Amino acid sequence: MNEASLQREDVQVEVVAPAHEGDHAHPGARRYVEVAAFLAAVTAVEVGLYYTSLSGLLLVSILVGLAAIKFGMVAAYFMHLKFDGRLLRRLFVTGIILAFSVFTIALVTMDVLLK
Amino acid sequence: MQPNVLTWSAAGTPGEHDYAVTGIDSKKLGMWAFLASECLFFGALISSYLLYRTRGPADQRPGDVFDIPYTSVSSFVLLMSSLTMVLALAAIQQGDHRRLRLWLLATAMLGAVFVGGQVYEFTVFTHEGLNISSSVAATSFFVLTGFHGMHVTVGVLWLLSLVGMSMQGELPVSRSLDVEIAGLYWHFVDVVWIVIFTIVYLVPL
């Protein structure tokens, strides 16, 4: 069949969706609520730790670790980095690594972090 | 018979999406690039606070006047605003404009509560003798949290403008990306607060 013989009803128009490499469907409302509940629970643990007798490097390590988990959960699920293309993930992670590296080096140099 | 399929780029269609060679909408890519740069911006402010927080007279340091239970509630409010924001995005993607407006308004309200709480906190600190010029530690604290509060305020205005657009019928499903981009900004403001709350408020001096 050539193009000239195409009937009008045979033609289907389709908008091309962006080809996001590695894209997956976003989660539903139930998963979002579960993530929010988890984040609230971790925040409660953080505040609870503040009032415990833990101190020094152990407390700081746990608190920073929990904050990193919360950061990752929000970025992965609410900002959809887990489901969107790899390029976006790389872009954002590059910014985080750059900022973390630059300011860690600066603070170590100024004798703030290792004091 | 297999129907023939005519395809075209989404650029210039009613959705007005503009896909770059990456296959990602340019506005979305631009927002992620902006957020990556914001990591450096807030990284600088957080580092400044870490550097200066023990400088100055002992009674002029922010760490001594923190009200952790109060700030914990504020943090919880901002955290929950990320949930309402992502539910707003899910609503518009499902074509449910009533829920979209409801969740956007809820997000804006939670953001306003957070900013109001921050203004109250600053007022209390000022009454206790700690203001932006009290010490270099206080300056770095107020600049960091103040800039964050400003970001939240901009987010609230952005969300309210989306509500207005939706009420006027200018936010169809095909423009759900506009809500997604506002959401990215909002969630970023939330993750920055996660870091600030831990490093500034919870980590001991």
The CA-CA distance between the termini of chain A, in Å, is 79 Å
Number of helical regions of chain B = 5
How many structural units, i.e. domains of chain B? 1
Helix content of chain B: 55-70%
Name of the CATH class of chain B: Mainly Alpha
Gyration radius of chain A, in Å:
24 Å
Main sheet specs of chain B: none
Low-pLDDT runs of 5+ residues of chain A are 1-21
CATH topology (level 3) name of chain B: Four Helix Bundle (Hemerythrin (Met), subunit A)
Oligomer: heterodimer
From the N-terminal CA to the C-terminal CA of chain B, the straight-line distance is 74 Å
**Helix amount of chain A, in percent?**
55-70%
CATH superfamily of chain B: Cytochrome c oxidase, subunit III, four-helix bundle
Number-wise, the strands of chain A total 1
Mean pLDDT of chain A: 81
Order of helices and strands of chain A: EHHH
Notable features of this structure?
heterodimer, A: 115 residues, mainly alpha, 2 domains, 3 helices, flat, disordered N terminus, B: 205 residues, Four Helix Bundle (Hemerythrin (Met), subunit A), 5 helices, 70% helix, elongated
Give the structure's gist in a few sentences:
Chain A has about 120 residues and is mainly alpha-helical.
Report on the structure:
The complex is a heterodimer of chains A (115) and B (205). Chain A is mainly alpha-helical and 115 residues long. Chain A folds into two domains: 25-84; 85-115. Chain A is built from three helices and one strand; from the N terminus they run βααα. In chain A, α1 (29-50) packs antiparallel against α2. With 205 residues, chain B is mainly alpha-helical. Chain B has one domain (26-202): Four Helix Bundle (Hemerythrin (Met), subunit A), CATH 1.20.120.80. Chain B has helices at 26-52, 68-93, 97-127, 136-167, 176-202, and one strand spanning 4-8. Chain B is elongated and about 55 Å long. Chain B starts with a strand and ends with a helix. In chain B, α1 runs parallel beside α5 and α2 runs antiparallel to α5. The longest helix of chain B has 32 residues, at 136-167. Classes of the chains: A mainly alpha (115), B mainly alpha (205). At the A-B interface, β1, α1, α2 and α3 of A face β1, α1, α2 and α5 of B. β1 (11-15) of chain A pairs parallel with β1 (4-8) of chain B, so a sheet runs across the interface.
